[in-house]
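Appendix C reproduces, verbatim, an entry submitted by the partner laboratory led by Prof. M.T., so that reviewers can inspect both the input and the predicted structure.
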Amino acid sequence: MLRVGVLFGGRSGEHDVSLCSAASVVSALDPAKYEVIAIGIDREGKWYVQDRPVIVDDKDFGRVLKMETKGAWRVNHFEAGNILELHDIDSGRKVRVDLIFPSVHGTYCEDGTLQGLLDLAMVPYVGADTIGSSIGIDKDVAKRLLRDGGIPVVPWETVVIDDWERDRVAILEAIRQRLALPLFVKPARTGSSVGVKKVGDHGGLAAAMDYAFQFDGKVLVETGIDAREIECSVLGNNDPKASVPGEVIPSHEFYSYESKYIDPEGARLVIPAPLEAGVADAIRETAVRGYRCLCCSGMARVDFLLDRSSGNFYLNEINTLPGFTSISMYPKLWAHSGIEYSELLDILIGLALERHRARMKIRTDR
């Protein structure tokens, strides 16, 4: 039986969201196929193997995977080939897993850091690899690659913290000259709308920038457009496929962290999105193109903005480890496309093993 380590928590602003995703994954993995081992990462980055997966109620997120922080666990990949071993030096207990299913989000989780560790360990894992993860998390790098690949993106400016601290007045003036209001200010390398502010006038821009810089040393300022928010799920390695598109209709001013996770009435999901057939097909085709352009594999949710006036659409972001709760858009889109949640987990694990087998065939000697 395949031993699947479900990794949850993490050292990021999306720690709490991860506990919710992990609860859904653990509940849906078939016990006849997999031995599930829950592995929590606390906010300091320490790993803890759980005695058994325990799901509890949470006032904000409904059902979450409980994290026990017992023991002094060390991660070791040298004991056996292609297996991750975790060793509790307090008790002497050793646990081995054959594959990692990351139910984690944000910094140090989906930015290539974790994936690089697992690549070094030669352990298969679900989701994008190191390069796809590091590109996907960086909105600035992703936008430049998409633009150069002929995929439409909204106008933006990128600001790094050193330049901001050196001459914020000049930066504010440059943004005023180059971008039309309203503006969205975003940390470049976070997800779940953490650190994002909408700015309706230039007087509020500096405060929004200061806020975003609390979460990252690189910040994007984007032109806001009056747009519908359309999302598409993509699945696959070398031959990716796109789901039907869905639409997010937020009840807040925009699809913020609160509207995604805290407010039960924060957004309405419409699946499939009410689009003309030609527009829906173009969005699905562009989702796959964007997925390939950013070197993704395994899975990603691809988010679009559809301009209400012009009818043009823009690829907004790619999320390589999307929310995976039972009500999250990624699995819901696939359910509407004919792949139910448990089957989707099986496919993702199969894709991880497929990519791992291909990687193991690559020569590392001369």
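The domain at 156-223 is CATH 3.30.1490.20 (Dna Ligase; domain 1). Additional entries are available on request from the coordinating office.
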